Amino acid sequence: MTTSQARPSQTASGTTVQSPLPQSRELGDGVPEQMSSGRPVASNSSTQSKSWAHFVAGGIGGLASTTLTSPLDVLKTRLQSDFYQSQLSASRSARGIPSPNTLPFIRASLLHFRETFSLLALVPRTEGWRALFKGLGPNLVGVVPARAINFFAYGNGKRLISQKFNDGKEAAWVHLLAAAQAGIVTGTATNPIWLVKTRLQLDKQRSGADGGGRQYKNALDCTMQTVRHEGVRGLYRGLSASYLGVTESTLQWVLYEQAKSWLSAREERVRLRGRKTWVDESIDWAGKGGAAGAAKFVAALATYPHEVVRTRLRQAPTTKSATGMPILKYTGLVQCFKLIWKEEGMVGLYGGLTPHMLRVVPSAVIMFGTYEYMLRLLDDGVSA
Predict the structure, then answer these.
(1) Could you give the 3-state DSSP secondary structure of residue 12?
(2) C-alpha span between 129 and 134 (Å, rounded)
(3) What distance in Å separates the CA atoms of residue 206 and residue 209, rounded to the nearest whole number?
(4) pTM higher than 0.70 for the full model?
(5) How many other C-beta atoms are found inside a 10 Å radius of the C-beta of residue 372?
(6) What is each CA distance from 247 to 46, 208, 271, 298, 320, in whole angstroms?
(7) Which of 131-140, 149-158, 203-212, 339-348 has the highest mean pLDDT?
(8) Mean pLDDT of the chain
């Protein structure tokens, strides 16, 4: 848990009173002193005076990371879809390049890197630079509530679980349960937004006798068409894969908490030493960003296939029946896994991995780094 120093407060009579508890940056709760075990006991008191600062700092962090990494997000989504995978397959056949499934690991990896960056250069050349930011609108709309819901659900869940089942002590399993329920709540609340974002990113200029226009005009039109053709349930396509993705966010939270515990122990040793060098200052700032990036890297790499399945389940139907009703290629989580494995092999389950990792790791560093910086800035502004 990230903490700031205890701040003085004023009573009604104007007397300044020093709070005995440092403040939790996640929830604004008082954090009790360390136990002999080194882990803090969850406090029953709750100080909500700075809750808005955590909300604003988290929202700005999410907005900054999402905007700066949007081109890689578009690229990742396209490489995860079967439409662009079929295009890449046709391009390989035309050039006499064998399937990555038949190549050694090193050659297959190099081919994946080359195709990834070729597509990154091709998108702005054929569709304009704005295509690199397609779906950014609904993505940004989803970032602030998603961050707010996730941090709120995780922080409160961690406190309640530790108080009810672990005598107020934090532990890795407490972090795991809190992160799992936070992921489920966040995924359920924001799935329609991510579905619209995915379909906008996959929407491509059509050519030929069908009019040559795009399928969706904007996010609202995409939402209305989805409800009209697939019902309200259509907005929750891919939700089962999102629930499977809770494993990623859970693993990330647990790793991040453990890294922060190590950083907190080191900070305590520096405090007892009585002086802080520039090396200590650098580790204090970069350590949290490094912890966020490393936790995200490990979690994303270990659980990546669910990202591909979620994208396939969310993509718009490409064929219609004789009656004009859309035909869904992917109808469920297990069916989607099996079909991708049958048609594309293991490589299909890792399509878009390169841009995904290039995006999520710096995104985590940017988001948590901006969050910490804005939180300190807002805290200083409040105390001034």
Answers:
(1) coil
(2) 10
(3) 9
(4) no
(5) 19
(6) 29, 43, 36, 12, 35
(7) 339-348
(8) 77
